[in-house]
Structures are given as C-alpha cells and as structure tokens.
Design a protein that fits this description.
The chain is mostly helical. The protein is built from six helices and no strands. The termini are far apart. The N terminus is likely disordered.
Length: 97
C-alpha cells in the first residue's frame, strides 16, 4: 500500500516537473531540468544511497537548485529530508537562496 502511494506521488511529481520545466531558467550554462535528476529518484524515495550517476547529475544541476526551491511545484521535493540526505552523500551543499 505504501509503495503504491509513493509510486503515485512520484508519478504526480514527474508530471508536475514536466509541466514546470519550461519555466525554469538556465543557470551558468546548465539547462535547468529537474528531469535530469531521475537517476536520483530511488535515493530520493528511499534510504538507498545515491548512485555515482545521481551524484554527477546533482552536481551538474547545483546552479539550478535555487530555481527549484523557488518553484512551488518543486520545493517540497528539493527540500525533503531524503533529498537533503542525497545532497549530503554527494557532497553537494544546500544553497542559501
């Protein structure tokens, strides 16, 4: 039951991300696209450690994190406890926006 609920939440989040991607500006030559972080989805949704690919993508998207935090549709995911654990595991500092 819980897995089904999280799956539904993840699907909703993915749909919201796709809708809002067009509204997120580019930062420092990086295309800000939350879909670039799909390799982190299992780490965001569970206690599993992030993969090397996830960490690389998170570092790549670091200039975009403030934009994600300002976006009401994305803020809850970027600010979640698991997202903060993933960022810490990948040595990506949480930005002060």
């Amino acid at each position: 039951m819980v897995k089904v609920m999280w799956g539904s939440i993840l699907a909703l989040a993915a749909a919201l991300l796709l809708v809002t991607v067009e509204n997120i500006p580019m930062a420092e030559g990086v295309t800000c696209s939350p879909t670039e972080l799909t390799s982190c989805s299992s780490a965001f949704m569970s206690a599993s450690p992030p993969s090397a690919t996830c960490c690389a993508k998170l570092r790549e998207q670091k200039p975009c994190l403030c934009g994600y935090l300002r976006n009401p549709a994305l803020r809850q995911y970027v600010n979640s406890p698991n997202a903060k654990k993933v960022a810490s595991s990948c040595n990506v500092a949480t930005p002060n926006c």
